[in-house]
Design a protein that fits this description.
This protein is mainly α and about 290 residues long. It has helices at about 10-40, 45-65, 70-95, 100-110, 110-125, 130-145, 155-180, 185-205, 215-245, 245-250, 255-270, 275-290, and strands spanning about 150, 155. The protein has a two-stranded antiparallel ribbon. α1 (about 10-40) crosses α4 (about 100-110), α4 (about 100-110) packs parallel to α7 (about 155-180) and α4 packs parallel to α12 (about 275-290). The radius of gyration is 19 Å and the shape is globular. The two termini are about 30 Å apart.
Length: about 290
């Protein structure tokens, strides 16, 4: 066979990348399961504070190592980005998890890619193109299908709106990170924004801390949410971005709703309805179409 030989390193990367994308998709899919289990005991504010604090502690060594690259002027953007890209979306997803199956938040999360493109077009002058505009409309159609559906006889519209608003904030956060944090070490930047968000959320967490004892299973889910689904997941994601680029790394978005629905069905017995399947297909299909060059 003609052509240059394939190096052992290239072969290793070929199988390692899809494996790591799958693992990361499963971890982020688990986050919606963990929120669903833990939030009734913690409430949204206390749970998010635990998540932010533990995630920041995992990334603190990277921030400390790169502390010289974070002068005071940098924090003028790091703090609001932490609020927009972490604190408020986490609270919205946790609030939604109190009111709807875990798969609902996971499906809404997939809208982040579309919202990022829309915000870049509306506020930062980036071209959107006809195909991406159509993809946005299709994706929003999926949200409408989801918002008007009922699961086990319960309306989930409010949870869908909260999850979609969280994805909108993620989309805004992506654009702010791109414009104001370029050149900073990614893991250290994530540690800075998570730490800032944890400090901002602390008063709400303290005033809304539950009076009743928190069960061990809820604590286990909260710790896993912070350490694994936030701290270590960020490390994995930035490692993937460095190796394969942001466009390919963002394909993990397609996996999160599938894992979120699967784990909720397996471990919580939550139903997967036809409305959820149709909405998920519309949203994920639109995200896939918007990512094509």
């Amino acid at each position: 066979m003609n052509g240059a030989p394939v190096s052992a390193g290239a072969i290793e990367r070929d199988w390692r990348t899809p494996l790591e994308l799958t693992v990361l998709g499963a971890i982020w899919g688990c986050s919606f399961l963990f929120m669903r289990v833990a939030v009734p005991s913690f409430g949204p504010y206390a749970l998010v504070e635990v998540r932010l604090l533990l995630g920041a502690l995992v990334l603190l060594p990277f921030l400390w190592q790169a502390r010289a690259q974070f002068p005071a002027r940098r924090w003028l953007w790091l703090v609001p980005i932490g609020l927009i890209n972490s604190a408020i979306p986490f609270v919205l997803f946790a609030w939604a998890a109190q009111r709807a199956p875990a798969a609902i938040g996971a499906i809404c999360n997939a809208m982040t890619v579309l919202f990022a493109a829309l915000i870049a077009f509306l506020f930062f002058g980036e071209k959107i193109g006809i195909r991406r505009a159509i993809a946005l409309l299709v994706g929003f159609g999926g949200v409408v299908v989801l918002a008007t559906a009922k699961v086990s006889g319960l309306s989930i519209g409010a949870a869908v709106i909260a999850g979609s608003l969280a994805a909108l904030l993620y989309g805004l956060g992506v654009n702010l990170v791109k414009r104001h944090m370029t050149g900073l070490p990614p893991a250290a930047s994530a540690g800075a924004t998570l730490g800032s968000a944890a400090l901002l959320m602390l008063p709400m967490a303290l005033t809304h801390w539950p009076d009743a004892p928190i069960p061990a299973v809820s604590w286990a889910c909260a710790v896993a949410l912070g350490v694994v689904c936030t701290g270590f997941a960020f490390l994995m994601f930035y490692r993937l971005i460095a190796r394969i680029g942001p466009a390919r790394a963002s394909t993990v978005t397609y996996l999160v709703p599938m894992f979120g629905a699967l784990f909720a069905w397996l471990f919580l017995g939550e139903p997967v309805t036809w409305a959820m399947v149709v909405a998920g297909a519309l949203i994920l299909g639109s995200v896939a179409a918007s990512q094509k060059r």
